[in-house]
TrEMBL record, chains A, B:
This is Isocitrate lyase/phosphoenolpyruvate mutase family protein. It comes from the Bacteria.
Length: 202, 202
């Protein structure tokens, strides 16, 4: 079974558009069918890249994919909500619209806005963007069906599945240390997983 | 928090002792505190490397660690049990003893015999080896306390935790597709996990 894999390239692991293009080429050469590229810097005092700089990086990413002949799905993430941009909700929404439209024009297939799950805001944003909007489900927040009905075209789970899987392993490890046994009724069979990573079809 | 990590280098990802030494150097340079090296070939018609060839590879691994000044824990795995070596139980045990003693003499810190969890056989093997014996817990088999009392000095869980974690993620994914929600009460906090992989102490 072959499934398309999208790669979260975060900020592209590079400072320049050329560097981002190199990262994109590397990911697509390894078989990635889609890419995330975000405008977060990781620096608390200046959390977002300038919008025009990010536009240049997205253009370089799209050009790199085109040059390889790969119709890569380019999911352009903006961290306006995660970073708490602006002084008011309106500022934040306006900046998200501004960035999102620019990113779509630069070749993004969707604008990803993690940290936004409020359905009315989502609906407004979707209408003002004029293009596909991706959001991240938050455990305890509105469910995926609600997010889709509010206008999201893509709902992802962020780190939730990974954190749940790690938590499960941690719980089992603690039990193993105490009891000397592992109770793993939901474990996947070894052969199934080995098959995923074998060269020949399993 | 710093925890020692041992690397499962399988067959050393190389055909020659020099190649195995290169792999060992790479793993230790990345910070591994211990290593697994196994005598399995992955070829069904000839599942085990010749014992003397594996001895050369273990010697090369130990020498590589010594040259780096790293007191690496070298866990020498033999797949006599996993591969179903020999025509009788006695053949299998004899070959395990022969290989295990040679591996210890080549510089191994323990002999790892996955596929063996029968306490009486374990006790006999431990006595005949004259050195530390590592075993793999099998879900549903004798518990770790029994294995330790029977003479094992190390009990690992093989792929069980990983397969359980993957199974948990698969179950949650299916629920998410159906219900649109993720129920992850045992998930680890994002900050905890992010801290593990950050350069500065979290």
């Amino acid at each position: 079974m072959t499934v398309p894999v999208t790669a979260d390239l975060e900020g592209g692991y590079a400072d320049t558009p050329q560097g981002v293009a190199d990262t994109v080429r590397a990911a697509l050469s390894l078989g990635a069918a889609g890419l995330n590229l975000e405008d977060a810097t990781g620096q608390p005092d200046r959390p977002l890249l300038p919008a025009d700089g990010q536009v240049d990086r997205l253009r370089a990413a799209r050009a790199a994919a085109d040059a390889l002949g790969v119709p890569a799905y380019l999911n352009a993430r903006t961290d306006t909500y995660l970073s708490g941009y602006g002084d008011t909700d309106a500022d934040r929404l306006d900046e998200t619209v501004r960035r999102g439209r620019a990113y779509l024009q630069a070749g993004a297939d969707s604008v990803f806005v993690p940290g936004l799950t409020d359905p009315p805001t989502l609906r407004t944003l979707r209408d003002r963007l004029g293009g596909p909007l991706a959001v991240m489900y938050a455990p305890g927040g509105p469910d995926a069906h609600i997010l889709l009905r509010a206008g999201a075209s893509r709902v992802s789970t962020g780190p939730s599945l990974f954190l749940a899987a790690l938590g499960h392993a941690a719980t089992l490890s603690a039990q193993f240390r105490e009891r000397g046994t592992l109770d793993t009724p939901g474990a996947l069979p070894f052969g199934t997983v080995q098959g995923w990573f074998s060269r020949s079809p399993a």
